[in-house]
Amino acid sequence: MKAILKISFIALFFGVNGFAQNKELLYDFYEIPQSLLVNPGVKTSQKWHAGIPVISGVSVQGATSGVTVNNLFANDGIDFTTKVQERLLDVMKDKDDFSSTSQIEGFTVGFRGKNRPDDYYSFGMYGEMDIISYWPKDLAILAFEGNGGNNIGRTFDLGDLNLRGEMVNVFHFGINRKVNSVLTLGARAKIYSSIFQFQSINNSGSFATTQGANNMYESSISADMQLQTAGIRRFYDIVEEDTGTTRKDVTNLFTERVLLGGNLGLGLDFGFSYQLNPQTTITGSLLDLGFISNSKDVWNYTFSGSTTTDGISVFLPEDINNVDNDLWQELIDEIDQALPHGENESSYISWRPVKVYGSVRYDFGEGGSSLFENCGCAINAESGSNRDYYRNGVGGQLFMMKRPRGVQAALTAFYQRRFGKAFSLKTTYTIDKYSYTNIGLGANFQMGPVNFYVLADNLLSYSNIADSHYASLQFGFNIISWNNN
Amino acid sequence: MKKLRYLGLLAMGLLFFVTSCSDEQDFSQIDDLNITPTISSGLFYFESDEETINTAGALSTFYSREATFNAFSERFVAEHVLEGSIGYVIENTTSKEIQIAIQFLNDDGRVLDTEIFDIEADPSGILTREVFYGTGGKSLDILVNTTGFRILARNLGDGTSESSTQDSKIILQSGGEFLFELQ
Fold this sequence. Notes:
Helix content of chain B: 10-25%
Radius of gyration of chain A: 27 Å
Largest interface: A-B, 64 and 60 residues
CATH topology of chain A: Porin
Number of domains of chain A: 1
CATH class of chain A: Mainly Beta
Number of helices of chain A: 7
CATH architecture of chain A: Beta Barrel
Oligomer: heterodimer
Distance between the termini of chain A: 65 Å
Strand content of chain A: over 45%
Order of helices and strands of chain A: HEEHHEEHEEEEEHHEEEEHEEEEEEEEE
Shape of chain A: elongated
Radius of gyration of chain B: 30 Å
CATH class of chain B: Mainly Beta
Number of strands of chain A: 22
Shape of chain B: elongated
Order of helices and strands of chain B: HEHEHEEEEHEE
Structural class of chain A: alpha+beta
Largest sheet of chain B: 4 strands, antiparallel
């Protein structure tokens, strides 16, 4: 029991520590090539770029809309059970979540079309892990307090169990086209190579113990619950067998899944940038419109049915001649029969978490010369109609993401400042369910052909990171060519 | 000058990042977590009409049955139950005094404990009894070693009279409320 609890808490706060997927600092930060991944229609000015493998794009994000690590684990002398009761059970709601997203880019390359210089092509591979678990409020209360005492008459919602997670490797190819001097469109096709996926997202049912119609207590349960998994069973079997080659077997299986050997899926990204006037630009993107077909290594667990029991009952005269002594086992069998549970290997489709970005931006403060006047690409260098010409940008961004329990949104205000070609800064203020005080800062450095960027969110929380509801860090190195030479 | 200001801003941001810190955390506190839910459940319900009692005759046992009951001796329950109580509610609307005895039996059929209820004839009102196990009550060993029970229902009156109460019956309800320590 202790081990299970420890694993649960560790998963809750470290593995599944609520991370949103919002990349508000990277969005429309077009000096960074990875901004193409959050808007394939972002303005591109470089001639080509290549990410330094594995470190071109690393991002980890974490957030919790409820309790923080510090709330529970601060060495404050308060009894831990009291903290769990007062800061977790009494406060958190079933809409609170713990989620985590991490991404690492294997490689990325982009280049401008030789015959069609208005087109910028990019392709690459990145791995992504995304896990979200809503706080199973009623189930947690049932586990901590039980169905007795003050909870007699209370209905526990079994639908509170709602979680989803996956690890995928994504192969992608995108086209970014400057349609005219004011409009840039982009699209990206993706092949998802699933490493594992699990979801338990459409559960429903209830459990209640009440004063019985016959007996003192009557317990009723109605459940329609399912946990679907794909890609997990074989990892589980390898670890369970523990043959001495476990590490090698896990690595081999992982590699196979990364390289299209597991369940596959398809997805699309779309995006645009439109210049309303020389100083005002609107942008938008729709990401991960796709699915994965899970048919290999599927292992599902189901639990459904309904029953009511008030214990063992004897009615006379009906039962006067019933000499069966196994009443307890009969009761258990009846409940088992009414609540069938089992495993199956049925295929299923898992949808990717769709994300939408939108922004409006106002540029000001003429810089005297275009940042990319020597780029040689002749694409975005028209002086006066080009926002690179302006040193400052200010605006707002909207982010929305489809989550199992609805749309999760974030609103961002930003200010960006460019210092020649050498570096630029972007600072953001974001409000969402995780934090009202999220101030982020990103910097992009261009040292010759070497590009380095670092973006960090919720800086105010860094004074006590364990008490943070949200934290994210992204960084990466690229080689970018602006010139013909 | 402006450049310097922005450089300062950047430096401040990096400073935040570099100097990020955290209050002291003690993750071993999880070992102190106490999870003690209270579990309630109906246990045993017994009901007999007056005609059945009369059929058995005066001063006779009209119902006797032994049955398995492993709820308390299930390993998980036996290992984690801290204390608890079993409540009984009995209502007799028949015209005769009735005695109900519930015996708790172990694997060998030995009687570990007996609860005896003598209920007056109608109008007897409702008899309630709560039996505590654990601290301050009976030994928990009675429950965790119980694998069956025997119920004996005796008519202590005549075998002919009928109560003026419509649909007269003897009814026994029981339910348990137990405190568990999961961690």
